[in-house]
Amino acid sequence: MRTVIIGGGPAGLFTAIALARRGRQVVVVDREPGPPPRAEWRRKGVMQFQHAHSFRGQVVDALNDEMPDVLGALVSAGASVVMASGRAAALRCRRMVFERELWRRAVTEPLVHMVTGNVSEVVVQGARAVGVRIGGDVLDADLVIDASGRVGRIAGVAHGRVEGADCGATYVGRQYRLRPGARPGPTNSVVGLSLSFPAYAAVVFLHDNDAFTVTLIHDGADRSLHRLRHDSVFEVAVGAIPAVGDWINPDLSVPMMPVLAGGRLYNHYRSQLDDGGRPALHGLISVGDSVCTTTPLAGRGIAMAFMQARQLVRLLTGNGVDIASMTMEFDEWSTANIKPWFADHQFVDAERVRRWSGGDIDLARPLPSDLIVAAAEADPRLTEIVAPYITMDQLPDSLLPAEPRAREIYASGWRPTPPEGPSREELISVVSKTRVAA
């Protein structure tokens, strides 16, 4: 059976390698020819490629179980696995380095064939996907896997129902590298440093080879904050946040690239099925961001993509003929294991935007998960309940036993201790007064 995978991003490459190692012929079609031999890779059309990424423990586990050689190559390239409580908690690595090693492994895999081109449509015969069109050529397939991402546009495809909305946040970031021998700045998580202010957030993401990214997240409502995309403005704004500003001290680090502004962020979920509960298009299965995207603030994207890919590979290995039944089984699994994270983000983001706009915690409604997690600061006994949610070892509904106690805490008037740094109004003032360097 020949499988064509549309998209050579993390989900597509992981799926291709895993299927090939189980004896399946796989063709991966991507618009790019892959990383250049020596120059830095700049993936066109992938906005998030140069932005900060965090790779959760699920990503490390997937690589360790399915392709330890890739994990070894990443570590040899400078990435590092962070351990916590006896297990892998994160992989510190840039997205560019991560994809480069996956790509290098894919092109050497005997049963994987990489094709450079743009898929203009999925070819359909008799209500079944039978291949893809690349320019004037048709590439036949017994199964087509759409790993083209949320913004993938493939003509002639009948997709299932789509849910989602703008998450109400925008971000800007800049990548730096520590100077030789410099001691890192402060950290408070496996990601690096994460600070949540009443109306914005600041995160330092640690990567490979002493590289790190500083990211500022806000609601985008005040146009003054759009000036953060200028290097000089960004540097002054970050410098005003004490713990984060420590990281960009010129004696400690140097910028590696200009400030990059991220696009609007979306939470979205797409079913594989039509309104009648049957595959929207027989012979076509979506995976990764083509199924679900969530706010990057929690760094769950590639973790969920690999969780999906692993399940899809398991099902395809056990059922190579009845694709329709397998598609429905995969959709059922995704509904149970992936969609809850989408729903969680939908609610959390809506409540965060409301609070960022000046609203207080609404005790007349269910508490969003971020507030339940934050309540562990006031009552450490909640840590045992919230920890598996934080690590994605338990689904969001695992927080329900902690909600009553969290509600009591907030009803008493307690609020999370804000980190040291400027308020939103003070940050806007700093940004507004800073001149843009010529």
Topology, pairings included?
Layout: E1 2-6, H1 10-20, E2 25-30, E3 55-56, H2 57-66, H3 68-76, E4 80-84, E5 87-92, H4 95-108, E6 112-116, E7 119-125, E8 128-134, E9 137-140, E10 143-146, E11 162-166, E12 170-178, E13 192-196, E14 201-206, E15 211-218, H5 231-239, H6 242-245, E16 253-255, E17 260-261, E18 266-270, E19 284-286, E20 292-293, H7 301-318, H8 323-337, H9 339-356, H10 369-374, H11 383-390, H12 403-411, H13 424-433
Parallel strand pairs: 1-2, 1-10, 2-6, 10-19
Antiparallel strand pairs: 3-5, 4-5, 7-8, 8-9, 11-18, 12-15, 12-16, 12-17, 13-14, 14-15, 18-20
Keywords summarizing the entry:
single chain; alpha+beta; FAD/NAD(P)-binding domain; 6-stranded antiparallel β-sheet; 5-stranded parallel β-sheet; globular
Query: Mean of the pLDDT scores?
Result: 93
Number of strands: 20
CATH superfamily of the largest domain: FAD/NAD(P)-binding domain
Specify Rg, calculated over alpha carbons: 22 Å
Q: How does CATH name the architecture of the largest domain? A: 3-Layer(bba) Sandwich
Describe the structure.
By secondary structure, this protein is of the alpha+beta class. The chain contains 13 helices and 20 strands. It folds into three domains: 237 residues, FAD/NAD(P)-binding domain, CATH 3.50.50; 106 residues; 53 residues, no CATH class. Helix 1 packs parallel to helix 4, helix 1 runs parallel beside helix 7 and helix 2 runs parallel beside helix 7. The protein starts with a strand and ends in a 5-residue tail after the last helix. The model has no long low-confidence stretch (mean pLDDT 93).
